[in-house]
Amino acid sequence: MSTTEHSEFIDSDTGKLGMWLFLFTELFLFGGLFIVYAVMRSKYAADFHQAALELNVFVGATNTVVLLVSSMTVAMSLTAIQQKRAGKAMGLLFITLLLAGVFMVNKYFEWGHKFGLHLYPGSDVMKSLPHGEIMFFGLYFMMTGLHALHVIIGGVLLTIVIFKIKSGKINAEHYLLQENGALYWHLVDLIWIFLFPLLYLVT
Amino acid sequence: MTNSSTSEPLNYLNHKTGLWSWLSSTDHKRIGLMYMYTITIFFCTAAILGLLMRIEKLTPGQTIMTAQTYNGMFTIHGIIMIFIVVIPGLAAVFGNFFLPIMIGAKDVAFPKLNLFSWYVFIAGAMLGLYSQFANGHSPDTGWTFYVPYSASASSNVVIALTAAFVLGFASILTGLNFIVTIHRMRAPGMTWFRMPLFPWSLYATAWIQLLATPIVGITLLMVIAERTLHIGFFDPALGGDPVLYQHLFWIYSHPAVYVMILPAMGVVTEIFPTFSQKPVFGYVPIVFSSLAIALVGYFVWGHHMFTSGISYESRWFFSFLTFLVAIPSAIKVFNWLSTMYGGSVDLKPPLLFAISFIFLFTIGGFTGLTLGSLATNIQLHNTDFVVAHFHYIIFGGMGFAFFAAIHYWFPKIYGRMYNFKWANISWGFLFVGFNLLYFPLFVMGIQGMPRRYFDYDPKFQTGEMLSTIGAFILIIGLIIMISNLVYGSRRGAIAPANPWHGVTLEWQIPSPPPHENFDEIPVITHEPYRFDHPYTK
Amino acid sequence: MKNNENHVSSDSLNWTVLVILLILTTITILAIKIHLGAYTVALALILASIKVSIVLTYFMHLKFENMLLRLMVGGVFLLFAVVIAITFIDYYFR
Question: Would you say residue B518 lies in a domain?
Fold first, then answer.
């Protein structure tokens, strides 16, 4: 077996370990923002509370539920492919993509609302706010923006998985890509689980 | 020569030829060499920039360039040397080439990802170069990109930041690949404690690359956001905190020093037993000191910020941990010395470089403690003393280890031998030039000469001049060394498979190694570095 | 391939996990209404950590992975906690 052919079939444990290590780097990427958040919140507790009132808890909670459900459908899809039910697996992934779409539409309206109020970095309204509120909104846009980027990447990844299931490249014997796609999607969920209370539920 | 080349057995160099066969190769050996050639080109570029800076400082006042040019030059010298040369350096070149061979594998765990990371590296390196020339405003922030200046400087800072981000991504992918390779690809019988020590040092390094680099990634993104979107995390006018930037930057960039030095320690740990023909002294302590350096090294970032106004308690804490890191480093030094003690020491060029590594690294390490003490730090912060200290660690440590590594593994890589006499001569120039270049900076630093200054008080001229002379000697040494190696790789005498009588796996396969390293995956039966026992079945 | 050894989570397990996560989310939203002062953020973070560990354990199959991977994941979260703590040695005492 030559090295180039060798790489075509990376065995499952190796591939998964690689994915987990990659997820660690993602955690630390967001981790940097969490450090900034922690420092700024400890410095400007009252301003953070005031600024967070601007965010709609209902929208945040809805998106939390949407992501949690999508996390489950991804997990169930993996179960389905293991049980040789490719149709069910694709269906569940499709539902996941729909939920990702719902999340992004929610996010779009949420951001749109802020922009409507001229609450965006660098705006005059923003500059007139107290320092802590500027920091809060800066973090809000940076964190949710980076997270939304990850939702998009995860969506693309799961779309590729759907096509590979369709063509039979992912099947009950070889489903490493789907496992890793699912792991990535759970990470997106996992980050949001922290973001939700930190951004929407500040007292 | 023509006769032997037609009957030469197929190896990784000649089984396929042509530029494209290199650019599309997923062979870890070829990728390692591609890293080496790229890194050498960038190293020479940045070394010339360094020489130009030294010439500028030959006399007080303007000598050959303006102050602004000088600022751009030390910035780009730093960015190239740190992000393109030293951080990938040993791991990407010799790690790629020898890690799979030393653990008895045919390749790394993800060969395609490995090639991809080289392209990412090239993209980052090109961006770095572009930042220097675009619009004629080279960045002038220093490689540390400190805010608030980097958030407002009217130069190509965004491009340089993006370059550092992209290069960081390449470094992460290499680290990820190595961790998985070491976990999953070791040959049968090679338990963790039968693994040679260079792979061990790469393992410790890879974890730092993986877990520290993302923090600087997001930090650089925040500075980019600061410049383009005016978010203000680090801008006091908007409520931000510039010291927070320093925290985030050094959370990565201090561990990055260990990304540079740990593989260097790994390399010399391979060289000492081979040239003493004696088992390495204290295998287990060396392993654990590598891991300890990686772990504790993650928590000492604040010692770069003693004068930045951080709290007294944290200064105390960081200073204490800094002293703690010295312990595992010292353990290694004792181990290397004890390995040579009583052995049949054979002073070939690789050992010469490895011994000078110990000498220079020890000076760099002790002056590091001077900087790590709170009281002396106030006096020495931001002086030439710091410049001397980190050049002793990075160039004297990592650089000389790189030279040791290339002289050690050269016959394996090319199947030919370089000229020993010229190698020794180049060593002499490099060693003398290095010390003459950097040692005066210690003295001038203590006398109060600040770093990054284009001009200086005339009383420093003797020191500055000595330093510049040292730079010229160093460059001559580099030219001799590189010429000797290039000549050796093309015309050198054919080297036997195991010229140094090494016992690790790379010495038990032909030189140059075959495309897939091993015809048959070896089975390991003993701990490494046993010169009286066969390592494999 | 090694895939055959992989654990297959049943749909009912996945549903159960989801219901627990939703309950915890509801508790989080309700909990901030209680005035606990500075402890509210601690409570919210503890609840979030419980949710995250459930996602890691069941959805991400850590329960069925080898010990090494579990140690790595635990170590990474611990490392991050230590980094935050060390940063606050500065900010807390300043």
Answer: no
What is the distance between the alpha carbons of residues A60 and A103, in angstroms, rounded to a whole number?
10
The amino acid that residue B10 corresponds to is: L
Is residue B262 domain-resident? yes
Question: Is A30 within 8 Å of B218 when comparing Cβ atoms?
Answer: yes
The boundaries of the domain holding residue B491 are 2-508
Yes or no, beta carbons of C90 and B302 under 8 Å apart? yes
Interchain contact, B176 vs A18, CB within 8 Å: yes
B19, with CB counted inside 10 A (0-12, 13-18, 19+), is exposed
Q: Which residues on A lie below 8 Å from B298 (Cβ)?
A: none
Percent of chain B having pLDDT more than 70? 99
CB contact under 8 A, C83 and B313: no
Give the tokens for residue B277.
């023909």
Using alpha carbons only, give the angle B363, B364, B367 rounded to the nearest 5 degrees. 85
User: Mean pLDDT in chain B?
Assistant: 93
What pLDDT does C41 receive? 85
The helix-helix angle for C67-93 and B312-340 (nearest 10°) equals: 130
What structural domains does chain A harbor? 11-200 (1.20.120.80)
Q: Are B266 and B197 in contact (CB under 8 A)?
A: yes
Tell me if B311 and C94 make a contact (CB, 8 A cut-off): yes
- Strand locations in C1-94 (E): none
Q: Do C89 and B251 touch (CB under 8 A)?
A: no
Q: What is the mean pLDDT of residues B471-491?
A: 97
Which residues from B are below 8 Å from A when comparing CB atoms?
Answer: 26-27, 106-107, 109-113, 172, 176-177, 179-180, 183-184, 210-215, 217-219, 222, 225, 229-233, 238-241, 244, 247-248, 251, 515-516
A6 HSE (CA, 13 A, CB side): 17
Write the CB contacts of C28 (distance below 8 Å, at least 6 apart in sequence): A196, A197, A201, C44, C47, C48
B499 CA: distance to closest CA in chain A (Å): 28
How many angstroms separate the CA atoms of A56 and B418, rounded? 71
Whether residues B176 and A131 touch (CB distance < 8 A) is answered with no
CATH number for the domain harbouring residue B15: 1.20.210.10
Tell me which of B151 and C55 has the higher pLDDT.
C55
Instruction: Return the SS3 of B494.
Output: strand
Complex prediction ipTM: 0.93
Question: How many beta-carbon pairs under 8 angstroms link B with C?
Answer: 33
> Scanning the structure block, which residue is given the tokens 């460059």?
B475
Contact check, Cβ <8 Å, C86/B302: yes
Question: Rounded to whole angstroms, what are the CA distances from B95 to A12, B31, B177, B178, B198?
Answer: 24, 10, 11, 8, 8
How many Å apart are CA B267 and CA B262, to the nearest integer? 9
CB distance from B403 to chain C under 8 Å? no
Nearest CA in chain B to A35: B248
With a cut of 50, which residues of chain A have pLDDT below it? 1-8
Residue B531: pLDDT band (50, 70, 90) is confident
Chain B contact for C82, CB < 8 A?
Answer: yes
Residues in chain A: 203
* Closest Cα in chain A to B28: A3
Q: How many domains are contained in chain B?
A: 1
Nearest-Å Rg of the Cα atoms of chain B is 23
The answer to whether B75 and B142 have CB atoms below 8 angstroms apart is yes
B165 neighbourhood in chain A, CB within 8 Å: none
